């Protein structure tokens, strides 16, 4: 209750009074106390959630009318939630776009896990989120952005290898995990599928720490392509290589509340974010499509 009051900028007593009136109106408790999870919604509250969200979206759209978002004149702050590694991969490019085209608009970046992201968006602590596409039923609006493939990043000179890495060279190197990667993650599952395994020498908490563990070291990391590209961009000693094993791609999506599709500012920023993320997902070793060259 206290968190809801803080989010609404109301006192806890005011929120409690509003909840009492809603309970009387709906003939249901709506929220009940749980020892493990605190206040949890009842079945009636869960059934009401989506229709109420749609109604609020329609009301907001009616109040906005034909409002337009002019990025050059707008004064607004957005909160953008990104899964690990995306902040450094696309954040600078997004900021550059704002400085050039929306000088009074600011974005606060927030790193979130895939598990945290839906609740943060639903509570409006985050307006736009980018994470793994969810196949579970959700009240969020999801726009598919593309496939996230994995790449190897290493100091090729220190490792004494030629690029691209072949499987034997890859497995001969010690491996460094990053940002919560697990031994039962997509890389290890792909290796087990062909009867092989890698030797993990270390694990670091954040992608930002990984370059320090690779520069001048005989070690390799295997990370999403957007993280690998951002590391190589700021660390000239590091090189990228296509992973020598078929690692299943992850599907990445841009997520908002359903009423966000009626907010001109959110729609504008979504387009900016989507464009930069699609560029970050490009694989540098794949040939450009025909017709993309200079004429």
For the record, what CATH class of the largest domain applies? Alpha Beta
Architecture of the largest domain in CATH?
3-Layer(aba) Sandwich
Total number of helical segments? 11
Count every beta strand, where a strand is a DSSP E run of 2 or more residues: 12
Beta fraction? 15-25%
Please identify the structural class as seen in this structure.
alpha/beta
Overall mean confidence score, pLDDT: 87
Globally, the shape reads globular
H and E string: HHEEHEHEHEEEHHEHEHEHEEH
Indicate the low-confidence ranges by residue numbers.
288-295
Keywords: DNA-binding, Transcription, Transcription regulation
Protein name: DNA-binding transcriptional LysR family regulator
Family: Belongs to the LysR transcriptional regulatory family.
GO molecular function, one term: DNA binding
Key traits:
295 residues, alpha/beta, Arc Repressor Mutant, subunit A, D-Maltodextrin-Binding Protein, domain 2, 3 domains, five-stranded mixed sheet, three-stranded antiparallel sheet, 11 helices, 12 strands, disordered C terminus
């Amino acid at each position: 209750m206290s968190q809801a009051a803080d989010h609404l900028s109301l006192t806890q007593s005011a929120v409690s009074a509003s909840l009492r009136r809603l309970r009387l109106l709906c003939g249901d408790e709506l929220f009940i106390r749980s020892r493990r999870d605190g206040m949890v919604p009842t079945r009636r509250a869960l059934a009401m959630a989506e229709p109420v969200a749609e109604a609020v979206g329609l009301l907001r759209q009616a109040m906005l009318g034909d409002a337009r978002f002019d990025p050059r004149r707008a004064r607004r702050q957005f909160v953008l939630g990104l899964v690990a590694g995306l902040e450094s991969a696309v954040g600078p490019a997004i900021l550059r776009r704002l400085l050039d085209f929306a000088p009074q608009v600011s974005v606060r970046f927030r790193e979130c896990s895939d598990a945290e992201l839906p609740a943060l968006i639903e509570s409006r602590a985050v307006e736009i989120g980018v994470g793994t596409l969810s196949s579970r039923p959700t009240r969020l609006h999801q726009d598919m952005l593309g496939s996230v493939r994995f790449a190897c990043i290493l100091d090729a000179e220190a490792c004494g290898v030629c690029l691209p890495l072949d499987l034997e060279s890859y497995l001969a190197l010690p491996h460094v995990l990053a940002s919560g990667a697990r031994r039962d993650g997509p890389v290890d599952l792909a290796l087990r599928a062909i009867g092989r395994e890698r030797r993990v020498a270390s694990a670091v908490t954040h992608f930002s720490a990984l370059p320090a563990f690779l520069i001048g070291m005989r070690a390799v990391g295997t990370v999403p392509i957007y993280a690998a590209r951002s590391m190589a961009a700021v660390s000239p000693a590091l090189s990228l290589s296509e992973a020598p094993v078929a690692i299943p791609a992850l599907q990445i999506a841009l997520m908002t509340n359903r009423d966000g599709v009626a907010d001109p500012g959110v729609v504008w920023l979504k387009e900016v974010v989507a464009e930069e993320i699609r560029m970050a997902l490009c694989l540098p070793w794949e040939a450009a499509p025909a017709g993309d060259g200079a004429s």
